[in-house]
Amino acid sequence: MATAPSPSETPKQRMPKQRVPRQGSPKAALRKQRAAGRRHPLATVALIMVGLVATGGAYALFSSSATAETQTAAQAQLDEGGKLFAANCATCHGMALQGSTQGPSLIGVGAAAVDFQVGSGRMPLAATGAQAEKKPSQFTDEQVAALASYVASKGPGPAIPSSEYLAGTGDAGKGAELFRINCAMCHNVAGAGGALTEGKYAPPLADISAKHIYEAMATGPQSMPVFNDKNISPEDKANIITYLKYLDKTPSPGGFDLGNLGPVSEGLFIWIFGLGGIVAITIWLTARSN
Length: 290
Ligand code: HEC
Ligand code: HEC
Prior knowledge:
By secondary structure, this protein is mostly helical. Helices cover about 55% and strands about 0% of the residues.
């Protein structure tokens, strides 16, 4: 039995055997050997394994009950959203979101479109006009969220943006450049808004919440184009938001803003006041010389 050590035996176990001659009495050596033998080298490993399995199991148990809880909460939210939709939206958008002569299909518009449209009071549409009018939202934040998740459950679309893009801590300079290229032709360089064809208009962009700015870009309400993540990345959307928030804080960096209407109003100003002034001076001078 006590021949060559089996391969499973570790050096630690063999050590006392080698030290036997140096430690005097064989009894002491035996005791030592037994003490070493009692705690199997794999005991620590086994203990750690038991600990890991126990905590892992407990965690899995708790987290699965937590997901079950969020699942029932999500289901309750969907039910709530379904009821609100049937009562307030289905007449125009259809019970199955398929659309009708009164409103477009909402399949695949995403939670972001609902959050934008209902959160800004545009929906439910009150009167038929060139464009849905903005008004105070008639739903609570919870109800808007319920409607949004209900519509999103019927077809995937742009999600409500995560808060990391909404802090307004991006690069305002880059945002300004992107805004000039992509948005200024409708909303004006300073975000003052502008008229479009057929009675439509691009609204002024002062004091719009970062979330709604992001959602407007992601969903393209009405005649506004959709800027998906390939056109303008989420980081660049955050830069544009930073620029618009900068404008909110410093409405007119260049003094008297002439309504920020651009070259037309500035040109008109020069025509009327500049040229008018010169004409007046000329008349005055010639009147004096006569
Ligand atoms: C009176 C009819 C009417 C009612 C009621 C109505 N909508 Fe609309 N909805 C429209 C029309 C028309 C449009 C498209 C015109 C526009 O965007 O200005 C629209 C557009 C939308 C859009 C934008 C779709 C897109 O492609 O981006 C969303 C989202 C939306 N509605 C959600 C809702 C929700 C949610 C409700 C209920 C709270 C609702 N609507 C109630 C008529 C209606
Ligand atoms: C083709 C013209 C056009 C372009 C380009 C355009 N928009 Fe718009 N935008 C609109 C119109 C029209 C609306 C109003 C939609 C409505 O009321 O249903 C709008 C609405 C918005 C709103 C919502 C404002 C509010 O009062 O709630 C925001 C924010 C916005 N646009 C941001 C942008 C940004 C940022 C860009 C550039 C990345 C951009 N838009 C490019 C036409 C445009």
